Amino acid sequence: MDRIEHRASFGGFQDVYRHVSTVLDCSMTFGVYLPPQAALRRLPVLYFLSGLTCTEQNFVTKAGAQRYAAEHGVIIVAPDTSPRGEDVPDAEGWDLGKGAGFYVNATQPPWSKSYRMHDYVVHELPALVEATFPATDVRGICGHSMGGHGALVAALKHPGRYRSVSALSPIVAPSKVPWGHKAFSAYLGDDRELWKEWDACALLAGARERLPLLVDQGDADEFLAVQLKPELLRAACDEASHPLTLRMQPGYDHSYYFIASFIGDHVAHHAAAFAD
């Protein structure tokens, strides 16, 4: 594993590493913020999953999360959003292929060889982080848009693995919106019953753990009505009696201005769960 960036930030260090992923069969990069407390003891880890078109750099450079991680003593790890490399399949457009892994384990060729972002985020990357950095096995997971979908699904599919979960403008029901239709058809095939394994609203009905969900959504989000549909998450949580705090934020859109405005609340949400 090679460190390719190293920058002082709020008393700690914002680094970026490159490593070879056996799960994805390619080299991957991820950001890791080590707050000043990491020099003294092992700390819990918050994983942040970014959205369509992003790499780890979007969150690292735009979200402003480092100051809150330093305040609460939390390591933040931000992976890339898809496998990368010349041998990795890609597609026309920005909502499928590189930059659009959707945090699923693809079953259809040619995607199935490398597009296994769920296993990478849930298993391979945490194992690497916990073996390399002063990190405990206390984990939280958060994400934005496609990454919010990935975070919710990871927590719902793996009870006991995460202490906390939250999302900003997540795709809550990908099996019912155009972004999900395109991605799931390619990665998972045409059997829509199989899509439910990767749909947060569908998974809530059988959830074996009741981790409280914190979700922020801007009411001026350009993707709100067609792609995000937070009302479906509210209905699914009501039906399953699953704890949900859904905050509709007036005037905010889908951008990193929105993320930066509320990421402090999300880091605090996870830090409180880590302290329990």
Name a few traits of the molecule:
276 residues; alpha/beta; Rossmann fold; 9-stranded mixed sheet; globular
Q: Examine the secondary-structure arrangement and name the CATH architecture.
A: 3-Layer(aba) Sandwich
Distance between the termini: 33 Å
Number of E-type strands:
9
Mean pLDDT: 97
Bin the strand percentage: 15-25%
Total number of distinct structural domains: 1
From the structure provided, what is the oligomeric state, counting identical versus distinct chains?
single chain
CATH domain class: Alpha Beta
Widest β-sheet, arrangement of strands:
1-2-3-5-4-6-7-8-9
* Low-confidence runs of at least 5 consecutive residues: none
Would you kindly provide a written description of the structure presented here, covering whatever features stand out?
With 276 residues, this protein is an alpha/beta fold. It has a single domain, classed as Rossmann fold, CATH 3.40.50. It is 36% helix and 24% strand. It contains 10 helices and 9 strands. It has helices at residues 56-62, 66-72, 117-132, 146-157, 178-188, 192-195, 200-204, 224-228, 230-240, 256-275; strands spanning 2-9, 12-21, 26-34, 43-49, 75-79, 135-144, 164-168, 213-218, 244-249. It has a 9-stranded mixed sheet with strand order 1-2-3-5-4-6-7-8-9, with helices on both faces. A hairpin with a 4-residue loop joins strand 2 and strand 3. The longest helix is centred in the C-terminal third of the chain and has 20 residues, at 256-275. It is globular and about 50 Å long. The relative contact order is 0.14.
